[in-house]
Structure formats: structure tokens, C-alpha cells
Design a protein that fits this description.
mainly alpha
Length: about 100
Amino acid sequence: MKSETRLCPASCTPVEELITEDFGHIGTEERNQFEMECDVFIIGERLKDERYKAGLTQKELASRIGTKKSYISRIENGKADVQLSTLVKLFNGLGRQVHIRIL
């Protein structure tokens, strides 16, 4: 495995430093908000990816789990707050399982 110094020239600023500069240190309100929005984005992208793999449209997935296409779209675009039970239904509707790990 290559070290970070080999992957990043001396003039390159590490990503963690850039995030801290823009959103504050870990544990601050602004940083927590940023990290939550990142998690929401990742969940939406993962849902979209799994839906594509299943060959389903947003409307078809919505029909499978008893919701509206617009709600699926909002989740995939990071514009909806998703309850855990809904998240499980969404991925189960795609034949996938949800496992949560608390770090």
C-alpha cells in the first residue's frame, strides 16, 4: 500500500485539513452538520446505485414499498430525512439488507 506522501505531493493539502478549515473541528456544530449531510448524500447515492442494479425506476421501487416516487427522488437527492424503518423497507424492496454499525 502506498503511503499518503506518495499519493499527495508536498504542495497538496490533506483533505482533513480542508474540511476542518471549511467546517470546523470534529465535534463542532458546523462540522457535525457537514458530516450528517455527507452521510445523507452517501445513503441517497447507495440507494440510487442499488435501484439501478435492480433495474427499477423510482416509481417501481416506490410501488414496492408503498410510497410515492417523489419521496424516493427526495431521498436519492439528499432532500429527505429518512426514518430507520423506511431505510430498511427501501433496501429490502431492492432485495438488500441493512446493517448498522455504531462507531
